[in-house]
Amino acid sequence: MVYLRIELKVSRIQNQLSQKQLAKLVGVSQQTIAKWELGVTTPSHFKHLRKLESVLEKPANHLFPDLFLEFDKVQ
């Protein structure tokens, strides 16, 4: 299922960051940020989630709510 990562994009824009700037801060490519925002992929490494939380000052479950909803269903 593909979800739009509206919260990720909104948080990035609120922090006045381009996809390229955020990518550099997180340690991924600009294309990766674009894919996360479009819901094509999700962060595959925990360290990327933690870095996003730190840079955007929002918890990962706010940036990727559907990802955590799926996780909660498994538990």
Q: In a nutshell, what does this entry contain?
A:
This protein has helices at 6-14, 19-26, 30-38, 46-56, 60-63, 65-74. The chain is mainly alpha-helical and 75 residues long. It has one domain: 434 Repressor (Amino-terminal Domain) (Orthogonal Bundle).
Output the keywords.
single chain, 75 residues, mainly alpha, 434 Repressor (Amino-terminal Domain), 68% helix, globular
Structure description:
It is globular, with a radius of gyration of 11 Å. With 75 residues, the protein is mainly α. The chain has helices at residues 6-14, 19-26, 30-38, 46-56, 60-63, 65-74.
Helix content: 55-70%
Uncertain runs: none
Rg from alpha-carbon coordinates:
11 Å
CATH class assignment: Mainly Alpha
Please state roughly what percent of the residues sit in beta strands, choosing from under 5%, 5-15%, 15-25%, 25-35%, 35-45% or over 45%. Answer: under 5%
| Ends apart, CA distance between termini | 19 Å
How much is the average pLDDT?
Answer: 86
CATH fold naming: 434 Repressor (Amino-terminal Domain)
Strands, helices and their partners?
Blueprint: H1 6-14, H2 19-26, H3 30-38, H4 46-56, H5 60-63, H6 65-74
